[in-house]
Design brief:
- By secondary structure, the chain is an alpha/beta fold.
- Helix 1 links the parallel strand 3 and strand 4.
- It has eleven helices and eight strands.
- The protein folds into two domains: about 190 residues, Rossmann fold; about 55 residues, no CATH class.
- It comes from Streptomyces spirodelae.
- This is Alpha/beta hydrolase.
- One of its GO terms (molecular function) is hydrolase activity.
């Protein structure tokens, strides 16, 4: 697949691809993912009459990066990709889907970057502080230290085990997977995700500024904390709706997820 490029407001070059010919849905990935991770879901959307637009968040894949990092920059990135595929122009509607911390990018884009999106979908935005599980600043500091020292493998391992809380066998499975080398390449962006999340409490002013219809989804196999955080996010949004779907931990198969998303976006 050949990438197209657009430029964010701070000059950062962003790589994206569009699959399908229907109304665009910007697929925004979570931690440790490049645009490739969103391709199966984008293809499912394309088969349902939409088009899936996958892009590399700054610092990942074929996109550039510009210091210093700030959450609003990622919101501006998404707004730039939306504009590149016609949002606010010839396209009558443009939508977006945010996976995990990708959902936080969507909220930034809507509240602070003026993205021209008609409806959005968030999958398990990790505002676990809303239900009592705050992001641990000590662990975040240790992650930042590992990244600054160039210890990429250790940083990814620490993120998966100590911040996400995956069991040892799952972490070892990640280390043995074909995606491990790509994860190490973008380990520095883990600090971007923790910065986006803050202390993991609900950003009430940001949520209040997101007026478009928003569907917040979770998997029935995710932890109760993640499910409750998704529900709390929906309740805090002016036009939020919550649903849980059959899946595995922090994931629903693309073929099951896409019809639900399509139905909401086109309703």
């Amino acid at each position: 697949m050949n990438a197209q490029f657009t430029t964010s407001s701070d000059g950062t070059e962003l790589a994206f691809e569009r699959l399908g010919d229907g109304p665009p849905v910007l697929v925004t990935g979570g931690a440790l993912s490049t645009r490739a991770a969103g391709v199966p879901f984008a293809r499912e959307l394309a088969g349902l009459g939409l088009s899936g637009v996958v892009y590399d968040r700054r610092g990942r894949g074929d996109s550039g990066d510009t210091e210093p990092y700030a959450p609003v920059r990622e919101g501006e990135d998404l707004a730039a990709v939306a504009a590149a595929v016609g949002a606010g122009g010839e396209e009558s509607e443009c939508f977006a889907f945010g996976m995990s911390s990708g959902g936080l990018v969507l909220l930034e884009a809507m509240a602070h970057a003026g993205a021209a999106l008609s409806r959005i979908v968030l999958f398990e935005p990790p505002f676990t502080g809303a239900v009592g599980q705050l992001q641990d600043p000590v662990r975040v500091a240790r992650l930042t230290e590992l990244v600054s020292e160039g210890e990429r493998a250790e940083a990814v391992t620490y993120f998966l085990s100590e911040i996400i809380g995956l069991p040892p066998q799952a972490v070892e499975g990640a280390r043995q997977s074909p995606a491990w080398e790509e994860m190490k390449k973008i380990a520095h962006t883990l600090c971007y995700d923790t910065t986006l999340l803050g202390d993991s409490t609900l950003p009430e002013e940001t949520l209040a500024a997101v007026r478009v219809p928003t569907l917040v989804l979770s998997s029935d196999a995710s932890t109760p904390v993640l499910q409750d955080a998704a529900r709390a996010t929906a309740e805090a949004l002016p036009n939020g709706e919550y649903r849980t779907l059959p899946g595995v931990f922090h994931q629903v198969p693309p073929e099951e997820l896409a019809p639900v998303v399509q139905d909401f976006l086109m309703s």
